[in-house]
Amino acid sequence: MTSNEPAITPELIAEHGLKPEEYERILKLLGRPPSFTELGIFSAMWNEHCSYKSSKIHLRTLPTKAPWVIQGPGENAGVIDIGDGLAVVFKMESHNHPSYIEPYQGAATGVGGILRDVFTMGARPIACLNALSFGDPNHPKTRALVGGVVAGIGGYGNSFGVPTVGGEVRFDRRYDGNCLVNAMAVGLAETDKIFYAKATGVGMPIVYLGSKTGRDGIHGATMASAEFGADADEKRPTVQVGDPFSEKLLLEACLEIMAKGCVIAIQDMGAAGLTCSAVEMGAKGDLGVALDLDKVPCREPGMSAYEMMLSESQERMLMVLKPDKEQEAEAIFRKWGLDFAVVGETTPTKRFVIRHAGAVVADLPIKELGDEAPVYRRPFAERRDEREIDAGSIKPPVAVADALETLLASPDLCSKRWVWEQYDHVILGNTVQRPGGDAAVIRINDGPKALALTADVTPRYCEADPFEGGKQAVAETWRNLSAVGARPLALTDNLNFGNPERPEIMGQFVDCVRGIGEACRALDFPVVSGNVSLYNETNGCAILPTPTIGGVGLLDQFTQSMTIAFKADDEAIFLVGETRGWLGRSVYLRDLCGREEGGPPPVDLAAEQRHGDLVRGLIRDGLITAAHDVSDGGLLVALAEMAIASGIGAVLEAPSGILAHAFWFGEDQARYVITAKQSKPVLERAKAAGVPLAPLGATGGTLIAIAGERPLRVDDLKRRFEAWLPAYMAGAT
Amino acid sequence: MRSAVVVFPGINRERDMARALRLISGRDPALVWHADTSLPPGTDLVVLPGGFSYGDYLRCGAIAARAPIMNAVRDFAAKGGLVLAICNGFQIACETGLLPGVLMRNAQLRFICRDVYLRIERSDTPFTRGYNAGQVIRVPVAHGEGNYIADGETIARLEGEGRVLFRYSSPDGMIDPNWNHNGAMNGIAGIINERKNVLGMMPHPENHVEASMGRTDGRGLFAGLADHFRVAA
Lengths: 733, 233
Hints:
Strand order of the largest sheet of chain B: 2-1-3-4-11-10-9-6-7
Number of helices of chain A: 25
Distance between the termini of chain B: 10 Å
Largest sheet of chain A: 7 strands, mixed
Number of strands of chain B: 11
CATH superfamily of chain B: Class I glutamine amidotransferase (GATase) domain
Oligomer: heterodimer
Strand content of chain A: 15-25%
Number of domains of chain B: 1
Shape of chain B: globular
Order of helices and strands of chain B: EHEEHEHEEEEHEEEH
CATH architecture of chain B: 3-Layer(aba) Sandwich
CATH topology of chain B: Rossmann fold
Largest sheet of chain B: 9 strands, mixed
Strand order of the largest sheet of chain A: 8-10-7-11-9-12-13
Radius of gyration of chain B: 16 Å
Distance between the termini of chain A: 60 Å
Helix content of chain B: 10-25%
């Protein structure tokens, strides 16, 4: 072991995010104290971000299998079969902590990381989505974070050349100290050409590809495994810097050498860089790995072994190549102007051996580095708020028409055009449905099939009742896919929570995961990939529990995808599903009454299934002309969005037997608004399926006119809907 | 029509362009690598496609303008060959000197992707013969640096010689700052060179060519070019 390295002290151990008992475990495993480099390697492998030590036992309960699942969680991304010899490869991942510290680069490298996860498996990325949570619009940091994060996502995705087609943006004071940036990438591969991390064969060359290694991002994963204190800004050096140009070259070069049959195993260097990727390839293949760091392409001279092993420099890959294809692979990488270096080989020893400047700086048991990472069964406290709030006890603060005007111009419900216009959402020429609808629709190659993609969660529900909230996130995702006519196939989950060492936070996590699992099983909608982000907490204040669900569905005919816009005058408008007028945890109750109370709307998964199947069948058979799921803001907001998307108004009947504000703004689940030229076949189908279907009125005119309420001009509603975010970002609100 | 699409590192709309050319001209274009020094023999049309060549580093198009293949493209243009330069291609054409002026950052300093309306200023060129003069088409833009600027003399020449082919407009063809998303001078979206064989434009007609995908406003440009070569042959 080399000298000139700091002595291992309790302070140094703590700085590496390792608890004293975790260090004891290292001593026991090695039978000696670790070297400085080895300590760094353990901290990289055993932090929460890489080891899932708090979440592992709960994630195992999620359903991950279905006949169409090719690869579930545990690889770079999930893989599902969509027929015709094609597979969809997708995953969502957070880049929360870095984005709060350095919004542009944090968000950009979040996109870069998830794209790499997808093309590492041999898939060409065809779409990106993102789910963003920011603090109160009035918090002094919020505006700059929104601007930086959105520019960063666009800056990376636009340059890389993938359409960013959907997602969500929310604001809540609970994200004041920790914004969330969850990025999802979706790629297309051939089912017989999927690439994995598992190395095979002894003495095979391990090749380093892509950009050079620099001193950026060191301890990034460790930083993301702790809550923020007052020193968040000082953590800026742990944030990586992205180069989408290099990533685009890396994509093309990787796909080219994969097509030439050069690759045995491949792993991108993401969190914990070279350490994590090398260990993963060896451990999965039951092989040892020997690396010679003198061969690693470095951006600057004098980098230590410790720095090289922990750098999170972006746009790098590690591969095990077929020895006879090494020259061919090198020629391809040189053509793309990328670094290519043989930095080691696989060994039969199952040890992870690192040499630098002639000395062995680390010699560790490779399996145990991953397998023996601590696993915690953390105590958790349950919370369930199922209280139904009596709508009669809530006095409407304003009339229905005024409430709609306010809600459409509110931060959470207003148009997010300002955001998605900064993302190239039409590149590749396959975007059938652009952002702004229930789900994006992307044609597959030249058709006829298409994918529907969405990302959803309702954090205020998850906090009130994590179990119902977890169910609801899955159900809403499933509903959004159904609303465009797609058959939901599988999902990726991005679980964002506070500090799991606090029982109430761990309780949120455990119950959200239980709820997600229950909904996945009921809807036959397996989890194939995911990511956990804990410690989203500043000075003891945690974010709202935010388990973002990214869903993928399939349409057999892209030309049949359904949109939310009203299509013509004089069409019948129906509500699918039952309306009790559930106001607990609704946007109405929060934004107009100033009350965050009650339980969230209960989710009846059997009803979700029946209602979704009905809507999907109606779309497939050409019986309806528009469909929109009813979610945040309730029925009238959904109707207004359909009008705004088309410029066509609606004449609506006043509800009977239910209070108006509960009817129009309650957030009961399993509901859709649909329109039809002919009512009869729709009514018959619903009746046969046992699905409640209520006539609401008819499309037409330029007003939203509810009997007994002030009529609203659609163009005026549109102006309000579109105005808030640009005005806010210009500093005008 | 034999087309050659030049691929610089970081270009990313070459597939969109290749699809449009294949669908409308019935022939796959050749993809020509930036490090090559010659174009395929018999090339009718050279396309500089959209993207972020060399990451847009230094200045959009500045590095690509000095790529080995650009000598061949310049020679091709000097002999009267048709060059279609879109988005990053337009920026490269300006940096190469094939077209005057420069594309600055959008006036609002943000990348913008949306459908815009273009008024076709004249239809008597190979690039616009598929349209009628005064016609308004709707095609997407996706750029951060599309704000066309040139000195007063150059603008006067471009206007005087009728070299502005596409102008940002309202849906009914009015030139209006509210419909000019990037602040380009005189609403300029696309221009041709003096010899009228090099077109540079920021919008992406190649993304609106399939009826099944919703809109076909971009077809006219490619159909007109295919027609031009059919008539010539």
